[in-house]
């Protein structure tokens, strides 16, 4: 194994820098236009589920071990790939609103989140970042795809939610 | 001994799984009446009712169950007078009388009643031993080309390790990627059970290899000798153990054992968990423990980095589970069950760094420090074996078509070296196609299909993060 170990392989936290390095951070211009996919999958996993998942052919790979590549203009931020990614590593961010951001995350815990719930927002290291209101929930094969309102500055930080029992 | 009354560790609500329990059954554990459900094993029913101690050593150390898949021996008990019954694989039934053992048991007075048992010699084109993803897909592929198949499985259900995988699998859609492991198992099992070319023997152990590669099978129904033109060993793997003070205390369990309890049977293995090993298994099982309602206190990893895919690590970090790399377990303690553990940092030479000890409040310690291919039976065929650490230990040399040095003897899946389910499925098919060619002679379609599968595997293994297993595969592969 090479000497240089990327920090994410030590602490399990994929940073925005890591995502930028593999060209998965949506461009500024695209972010303003509306919801768009944020894929946090920086390793060469033998997996191409996101490629076959996207109804708009926005994600591509040449080989199954490639890191996904996104065509930012084709992605409409629908979240279908969020529901199918085995790594639970795909999110959708929407920065087009004036005063808040919308973040979509996968969720596989009980109780099931419902529209209108105030839920705890969790960061990459599990730290609570405050609360947010659930504005949309749908389910596919037992994964809930949950969209929450967050302050704009947290758009790239919220990675999970926790529903109070 | 703490009273076992009223404890029920069964999970009734789960985000992914629905546990359909069978009819309630009553049995006797050391004289006390207990309940279980059809579909549970004895060990599972006992654990669900709060029994942690499965036996004592000669010098009175309490011991718990470790693997829950019939591969270790820590669950051996006396059942209806018969000692050394693997209770994790023995279905619980009305009226059973169960006792624990202390040290080695006496030679039993009752052995089994031979009357009414079948004794048969069977012939087949393809004998498949082990019904995990490798064995199931091999059986289906061979049957598709018209071969007669016998599929033998020690457990009372098909699917191998897949039945307890609740997470979605990587891979590609055409090879079940994106489905949850248990869903893959369901799909394959359904096809196998309804295929008239495949004769399935459940609760049947392939126990020995005899003259002319005749395989001995034993089950409650009888004893069978199978003469097969081709044999596939898809026997899977068993979990590695780790040496530390207290490691035999009940509450120290294999990660796979804990996973079997919670995902196959819906029993919460513990409430406060310490995970040893941050490979994919440790990471995934930790996440699944959260889903089962447990608290995971920490994951420790002796290596300087996480062993599994970072996306699996990111998944547990988000819910606040810390991962301590360069840490190991120093000891566990507790009275009849784990009540806590001490972890410690290690230096470059794997030596504990004094003063870095941390106590963890936990009642379950799960060990996920790797698997070892189960090749005990395969080795009896005389196939040439080699110690290959990258693959988890002793494995059979084989061609890229999965044929060992003994013609007609194949290996696939974890038994050929530890990898994962997608590769197991593909290898099972490759072995089956080679068996097809041996039985039917040249078949264009089979040759072409096999070529594509071999190529798919090569691509699949190209990831730099899989370089270690790739190296292992290279060492184990011989010219065809
Ligand atoms: C926590 C965890 C997470 C995993 N995640 C993934 C993942 O995301 N993706 C992936 O691809 N893989 C994953 N895997 C790995 C995958 O489950 C295994 O690699 C796969 O199940 C191996 O298949 P197999 O058919 O070789 O063996 P197994 O599934 O182990 O099946 C072997 C079968 O053989 C039977 N058997 C053994 N000996 C005998 C005998 N003598 N007589 C009769 N029957 C016998 C056993 O009872 C067993 O049912 C994971 C594994 C674990 C533990
Ligand atoms: S969010 Fe929808 S459109 Fe965008 S990549 Fe995912 S599936 Fe495709
Ligand atoms: S589906 Fe998820 S895990 Fe698989 S390659 Fe795409 S982003 Fe990565
Ligand atoms: S053999 Fe039953 S727990 Fe291992």
Largest interface, C-beta closer than 8 angstroms, per-chain residues: A-B, 45 and 46 residues
CATH class of the largest domain in chain B: Alpha Beta
Number of helical segments with 4 or more residues of chain A = 5
End-to-end distance of chain A: 44 Å
Low-confidence stretches of chain A: none
- Main sheet properties of chain A: 7 strands, antiparallel
CATH topology of the largest domain in chain B: FAD/NAD(P)-binding domain
* Low-confidence region ranges of chain B: none
Number of strands of chain A: 9
Q: Strands across the major sheet of chain A, in which order? A: 1-4-5-8-7-6-9
Query: Cofactors and ligands present?
Result: flavin-adenine dinucleotide, iron/sulfur cluster, FE2/S2 (inorganic) cluster
Radius of gyration of chain A: 15 Å
Helix content bin of chain B = 10-25%
Described by its quaternary structure, the protein is: heterodimer
Shape of chain A: globular
In words, what does this structure look like?
- The complex is a heterodimer of chains A (165) and B (480).
- Chain A has one domain (12-163).
- Helix content of chain A is 16%, strand content 30%.
- Chain A contains five helices and nine strands; from the N terminus they run H-H-H-E-H-E-E-H-E-E-E-E-E-E.
- Chain A has a seven-stranded antiparallel beta sheet. Chain A has a two-stranded antiparallel sheet with strand order 2-3.
- With 480 residues, chain B is an alpha/beta fold.
- Chain B has three domains: 24-102, Roll (Ubiquitin-like (UB roll)), CATH 3.10.20.440; 120-238 and 372-476, FAD/NAD(P)-binding domain (3-Layer(bba) Sandwich); 242-369, FAD/NAD(P)-binding domain, CATH 3.50.50.
- Chain B contains ten helices and 27 strands.
- Chain B has helices at residues 42-48, 133-144, 181-193, 255-264, 280-291, 310-317, 376-379, 421-440, 444-460, 467-476, and strands at 24-29, 32-37, 55-56, 62-63, 76-79, 82-86, 97-99, 101-102, 118-129, 149-152, 198-201, 204-210, 214-219, 222-233, 237-239, 252-254, 272-276, 295-301, 323-325, 327-333, 340-345, 358-360, 364-367, 371-373, 385-388, 393-396, 409-411.
- In chain B, strands 9, 10, 11, 12, 13, 14 and 27 form a seven-stranded mixed beta sheet that branches. A five-stranded mixed beta sheet of chain B has the order 2-1-7-5-6, with helices on one face. Chain B has a five-stranded parallel beta sheet with strand order 16-23-17-18-19.
- In chain B, helix 2 (133-144) packs parallel to helix 8.
- The mean pLDDT of chain B is 96.
- The interface between A and B is large, with 45 and 46 residues.
- The structure holds flavin-adenine dinucleotide, iron/sulfur cluster (SF4) (2 copies) and FE2/S2 (inorganic) cluster.
- FE2/S2 (inorganic) cluster (FES) is lined by residues 43, 65-68, 70-75, 86, 88 of chain B.
